[in-house]
Structure formats: C-alpha cells, structure tokens
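User: Design a sequence. Structure:
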C-alpha cells in the first residue's frame, strides 16, 4: 500500500497542476483578477508572473509525471511549496470572510473559495510532501 501511495502522490499532484495550468493559459486576465482579490503581494502580480504561472504549473505537472529519483524530489519540493503558498492565500481569504474567486482552475468550474478549497489544498500539500518522500 505504501508504494502505491508513493506512486499516486506525484501523479495526482502532476495531473492537478496540468489541469490547473492548462485551464489558465488562455485567460491571464482571470488569474490577474484572482491574484488581486486574494491579496497576492503586488510584486507577485506582475505581468511576467501572471503570464508565466500557467506554464510553470504545466511544466511542474509534466516533470512530476516523468521524472524519478532525486530530480523528482526537487520538483516535488517546488510543487509542494507552490501548493503551500496557495493554501496560505486561501486561508487568508477565509479568515477575512470575503467572497472571492480563486481562479484555481481557470474557466473550469466554480472557484469560489470555501472550506472545501482549503481542504483540497491541504490534501495537495500532503500529497506533495508524500511525493517528496
């Protein structure tokens, strides 16, 4: 069972990042608006970062699926750090009690931040940590 979890964790994180990045590629405006409404610090809302984020998520997703050994651990650490940053942003929005759309999956589905969003991100952080293992 443990070996299955160690295989499924990076695959799950990779697929989530591929879907997330792929759904954001064509609509950077939504990402920019989500960053502003979630309170992402201004230096991290630059055009370069907003436009690069979907491609970074796609690259991390691919690398989580195709790498192994220590390179995968390095990629998993970066992905886990990204998931942890998203977790902190979601928690801050929930603490403020605001109705905010995170734009987590671009045009796919309703991305209104809720306790379920925090739970999903908690699982992704845990899967990311497991992928590092």
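Assistant: Done.
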């Amino acid at each position: 069972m443990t070996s299955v979890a160690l295989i499924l964790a990076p695959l799950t994180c990779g697929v989530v990042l591929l879907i997330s990045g792929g759904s954001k590629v064509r609509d950077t405006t939504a990402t920019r608006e989500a960053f502003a409404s979630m309170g992402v610090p201004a230096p991290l809302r630059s055009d370069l970062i907003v436009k690069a984020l979907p491609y970074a998520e796609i690259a991390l997703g691919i690398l989580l699926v195709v790498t192994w050994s220590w390179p995968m651990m390095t990629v998993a650490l970066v992905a886990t750090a990204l998931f942890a940053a998203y977790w902190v942003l979601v928690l801050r929005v929930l603490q403020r009690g605001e109705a905010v759309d995170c734009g987590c999956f671009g045009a796919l589905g309703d991305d209104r931040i809720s306790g379920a969003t925090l739970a999903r991100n908690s699982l992704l952080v845990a899967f990311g940590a497991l992928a590092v293992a």
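The mean pLDDT is 90. The longest helix spans residues 69-96.
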